[in-house]
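Cross-check.
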Amino acid sequence: MMKFFRKKIAVLLMSVPTLFMASCTDEEAGQIVDTIINILASMLGYDPNGENWEDTDEELNDGDVTSTSVSWEKYCPPVGNQGQYGTCVAWATSYGLKTTMNMIDGTWNISNKNSASYQCSPVDLWHTMRSSYSSEVSSQCGGSSFDPAFKAMQTKGVATLASVPFNNQKMTCDGVSGKGLSSNKITTYRTVAYSADMSSNGQAYGMTVSNIKAHLEKGPLVIGARLGDRFMSWNSDKVIDFDSKDYQGQHAYHAMMLVGFDDNKKAFRVQNSWGRNDWGDNGMIWVGYNFFVNQFCFGVWGANNSASASSVSTVSAAPRRSTGDDISVKVISDVEQNMDGDRIVKYTITNNGTNAINTKDYSIIYLLFQSRNLSQKHILFNNEKNVVLEAGQSVTVEKQYNIPAAAKAGNYYTALIANPYDEMEDDNQSNNFSYVTGKDLASFYVTGGRLFNNSNGTSIVSSIIDKDHTNAYRNSEVQYSLIRMKKAN
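Predicted model, tokenized:
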């Protein structure tokens, strides 16, 4: 079956130069190429155009790798076979990643990994993300993207393969909804890395061997890859370290699971969904480090299942001894004063501890950050108040500020943060954050040096999780990002 699948793709792609040599107009030639690209997207099943590339993991780990090899293979389900259907994203994220994380953290017993009752169903996820979270392409039963797949597993979960089996039956998304499984969800997910050509500013993010290895030390990942001729016909346990850049000028995109690395081989270990019999090393492949980050891979994602099975940041405040110090902040209002973009924020600082404190000993900042990209942040002002507060006392502060010209147009939130760099031994850090959002956690829009409020007004909240739960930024994640920024400067 898979031999036929790969051969069919090859025949389609070999037809490209023949079509161009025929006497047709540039417009007709373009339509032919678009048709072939759509066929490839449908058959391989990955659509990079539907991704949210900005929701990135803040924890880059260049230079922090402690292992010379890592393998999660013993926790992985057997290599599956997606057949002729464009379901690779569902196979990589549900059958591959979610099943493996369940085995790693003990949600499911590893001795049952060969049982369909303890494997996640790619068919169920495929239907769920199309009926609820599909991209434009996936809603048409073509290729899909990781973003809608992760959203579906985050909010609805994914059923087992025993309850929603795949027997190479005809796949359709017409009027079919996934079952989901509320007890089988992920918590959050993040983009770990992407290549420069997938970025809006032409800059790669995290696409280094050391960063990807460091995330693999924490758990398996999923990847989007460009497939060349050698990969399509690979049938070896050797390392693939080069390939044709693409098929006759057309990229063939594919989703797979990344399950380890080995410094002796200088390669990453990848699990595919093309069966075990006639491709790769029993359905797996070793991909050379340099080839992987420079050409083969264009995107890497990780997800959180639990604290013991996650490949993206799950930063939390470290336990502290009691010091008697506890400061909290709360925004009262944030109002634009004029058409020049001048704004005034009013907020309170409260001493919740048992010791007297001086506000000059605590750094308090007002932060502007993009709703889907915490790395794009700007400090609007630092608190300059110098007031001694006895236990239980509060002080109200008004501060004028402007949106910096460097803040590019986009959706943003603001946050007032006490002790942002974790310099003071505050007993309770959870009350050190006060976020300003639109109604129902909607973001604001920044353009031309102005912040435009949601038409329904603003809301003041203590922590922020997007309505669609794609950001799920914990207070500690924001603080960790600021600590990294201070260290970098």
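The two ends are 55 Å apart (CA to CA). Residues 10-25, 36-42, 136-140, 247-251 have pLDDT under 50 and may be disordered. Passed to J.P. for a second look.
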